[in-house]
Design brief:
binds magnesium ion; 8-stranded parallel β-barrel; 4 domains; Glucose Oxidase, domain 1; 8-stranded mixed beta sheet; about 575 residues; alpha/beta; binds phosphoenolpyruvate; single chain; TIM Barrel; globular; Enzyme I, Chain A, domain 2
């Protein structure tokens, strides 16, 4: 019998193991008033708990493996900073003294008041911090509950190696411990792709499926489970055939990623010496760090929709700070910031009035930004201000007309001028690029290239619009074929158009991270690829074994003579063999 559950796969991979449920011991908080002579003892308890948690987190940070250091260390540092910050411990101490209450109660009251301040805040970054606050307060309460310095470790016992761990939810620190325990995979009932724990699970490469509803109720302790995070699937089964199949898949993936990781040390050149450049697609600091660790020469696509949460529109300072955080992670490497691509499937609540009957063809991307110049200016000013601190490129989404580009350029120039008049430094040579993701922009690529510093092909939308296949509609997903000849020919046209004006052209849609497609793109003349960090090693490993001259020849031959709908056969022909 197979029991299949589904959730959100937040980091790629497959795991097979026995299930271990982590108990979620809700803390029973003691709340009582204390006599005067007891007050200083409660203060000392709070201070001791804070010191113990801080050293536990420091020890955890020191023990992090090198490959995940950047992402995990950053999370742990944020938590340590919060512990040191006077607002949490200092104010809780004050509550003990002025309200005459015990340490746990004072901490709980202080946390509640901080939480509501954070939730009221219009600052998206601060709102995110409330998740950190909850986690750090939980840790302190466990410490106060005498569960000792090893409070976390106690919740997560030893001997979990190879198991698939199931929890209601996990804090980033708990994910870090699970990584140290070498668990095979993680399932949670709550959490989503952008939760800190998900970001960390991705950074560690732990196969993880989140938001699996009722998993704690329906899955049994110790039973065999298979987890395929690519599909967000969890299967509980004793079936030997499936175990054999997935066991082999796990071993294959492990062998492959070890081989691919070795490719990272090799120069970015094909077998016959042609250069290429790999960039990352990332938004959050741990992912940006992971891109750098996986050899990205910069960020080719930073989507900014994540800044525009459901209910609020971030101000200039919030956006600027988010970009500064990204720059800090990149250490001087270029950051390509795409202006808001709202609309389509991602329209913040605050802009809901701009929704239309067919969102993919509506007021989307640059159209919306030009329709709301005040909103656009706020974002442009934030990007331009960041440009004074490191290389920044501006990328405009959903271009279809040259006059959209002209109007966007005017706004950029006006914002830069206004900032200079205010005495704010701006890089005078900020590059402006355009997403080539509509058939119109692809067809007119040469004209766009004359007016742009670089082109970036967004194949996700290009495929959708060229093939008239809604990328959101699973009923037509079998028709969403990036290897379709119409798409490939159009990409070739874009590359040629960019070459006329010697403009660099990168591919930043999912196709750039697909090792099967990359040789064909290379053969078409693409030399820059931008992809999620998890794909960098696989793509590089493919490209360093590619015979570039042969790829060019065979792509040209195929485009000249073949009548097949897709270039799938060409992809197989150019596959340099398994890595
Ligand atoms: C694309 O369309 O290929 C792209 C990279 O943009 P998004 O997926 O954000 O639409
Ligand atoms: Mg797009």
């Amino acid at each position: 019998m197979i029991l299949a559950l589904s959730g959100t796969g937040v980091s790629d991979g497959v795991a097979l193991g026995r299930l271990h449920k982590l108990s979620h011991r809700e803390l029973d908080l003691p709340e009582y008033h204390v006599e005067d002579e007891e007050i200083e003892r409660q203060v000392r308890r709070l201070e001791a708990a804070s010191a113990a948690c801080e050293s536990a987190l420091a020890a955890m940070e020191a023990g992090l493996p090198d490959e995940a250091r950047g992402a995990a260390a950053e999370m742990l540092q944020v938590h340590r900073l919060m512990l040191r910050d006077d607002t949490l411990i200092g104010e809780s101490v004050r509550r003990v003294r002025t309200d005459g209450i015990n340490a746990e109660w004072a901490l709980d009251r202080q946390a509640a008041s901080m939480r509501s301040a954070l939730e009221r805040s219009e600052d998206a970054y601060l709102a995110l911090r409330s998740e950190d606050l909850d986690q750090i307060v939980q840790l302190l309460q466990r410490e106060l509950a005498q569960s000792g310095a090893a409070a976390l470790a106690e919740r997560i016992p030893a001997g979990l190696e190879g198991t698939v761990v199931l929890a209601r939810s996990l804090s980033p620190a708990e994910v870090a411990i699970l990584h140290q325990r070498r668990v095979a995979g993680v399932i949670t009932e709550h959490g989503g792709t952008w939760s800190h724990s998900a970001i960390l699970a991705r950074a560690y490469g732990i196969p993880t499926v989140m938001a699996v509803k009722r998993a704690l109720r329906v899955l049994r302790e110790g039973e065999w489970v298979i987890l395929d995070s690519h599909y967000g699937a969890v299967l509980a089964t004793e079936d030997d055939g499936l175990h054999g199949h997935y066991g082999e898949k796990v071993r294959q993936l492990a062998r492959r990623s070890a081989r691919q990781a070795r490719a990272l040390a090799v120069p970015d050149r094909t077998l016959d010496g042609e250069r290429f450049r790999l960039f990352g697609n990332a938004e959050h600091a741990p992912e940006l760090t992971r891109c750098v660790e996986h050899g990205a020469v910069g960020i080719g696509l930073m989507r900014t929709e994540f800044l525009f949460t459901e209910t609020l529109l971030p101000d200039e300072e919030t956006q600027y700070q988010a970009l500064r955080t990204a720059q800090a992670a990149l250490d001087g490497r270029p950051l390509t910031v795409r202006t808001l691509d709202a609309g389509g499937d991602k329209l913040p609540e605050a802009l809901a009035r701009f929704d239309g009957p067919n969102p993919a063809l509506g007021l989307r991307g640059i159209r919306l930004s030009l329709a709301l110049p005040e909103l656009f200016d706020v974002q442009l000013r934030a990007i331009l201000r960041a440009s004074a601190h490191g290389p920044v490129r501006i990328l405009l989404p959903m271009l279809t007309r040259l006059d959209e580009l002209e109007r966007a350029r005017e706004r950029i120039a006006e914002c830069a001028e206004a900032l200079r008049e205010e005495g704010v430094s701006v890089d005078p040579d900020v590059q402006i690029g355009g997403m080539i993701e509509t058939p119109a922009a692809a067809w007119m690529a040469e004209r766009f290239a004359a007016r742009l510093d670089f082109l970036s092909i967004g194949t996700n939308d290009l495929v959708q619009y060229v093939l008239a296949v809604d990328r959101q509609d699973e009923r037509v997903s079998h028709l969403f074929d990036p290897s379709c000849r119409a798409v490939i020919e159009l990409i070739g046209r874009v590359v040629r158009g960019a070459a006329v004006h010697q403009r660099p052209v990168q591919v930043c849609g999912e196709m750039a991270g697909d090792p099967r497609m990359v040789p064909v793109l290379f053969g078409l003349g693409v030399r820059e690829f931008s992809m999620p960090p998890g794909q960098l090693a696989a793509v590089k490993s493919r490209l360093i074994r590619l015979d570039a001259a042969r790829a060019r020849r065979e792509v040209a031959d195929d485009l000249a003579v073949s009548d097949s709908d897709s270039v799938a056969a060409l992809c197989r022909q150019l596959d340099p063999g398994s890595d």
